[in-house]
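hey can u run this one w/ magnesium ion bound, need the structure tokens asap thx
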Amino acid sequence: MNIVVDFITWFLRFYLSPMVANASPVLINGRYRIDKGIVLWDGKPLLGAGKTWEGFIIGVYMGFLASLPLYFYFYDTRIVLDGLFASIMALLGDMIGSFIKRRMGIKRGDPAPILDQLDFALMATLYYWFTCSFFASHIYYIFFSLLLILGLHVLTNNIAYYLGVKDRRW
Ligand code: CTP
Ligand code: MG
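ok here u go:
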């Protein structure tokens, strides 16, 4: 049982902020597209209308806020710095995901399984991997965290769909 508590604590320490950062942008209806409507050589948008500055800013802000209660639990200033930087990385990962989707010809909002659920988490993982040895020394935890995030996404999307909050199951 100890290892479960240990994992959950570790998971929240590192992935709460990126998850909150990734989930927050949908709450506001952003208007200012990050790609400014740029279309690339393939005739598809650089990122698409789903990536806005308002979304980016609210995501970083909420991800940062989410790290504050963790700070009062761990009493380590690294937590709030990580809350900020991991949130920025998460949203960059989300943009990279959209970039890849557009290049693959997948329309904004259409599903790209795995990529949709993990783009943000992989970038946050990369950030921690190179900046935190306590993170990098827990390879099994990292692997299990990514699996958990994948599962949580499927679960929450299905709940939202059956509650009628979302019109698609992904
Ligand atoms: N969003 C935003 N700005 C961001 C990220 C997300 O405004 N930087 C908002 C958009 O309204 C977007 C919603 O959050 O539609 C959900 O985000 P996401 O699923 O990442 O975007 P999709 O619309 O699915 O677009 P894509 O196909 O590019 O992933
Ligand atoms: Mg999407």
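The two ends are 33 Å apart (CA to CA). anyway lmk if its weird
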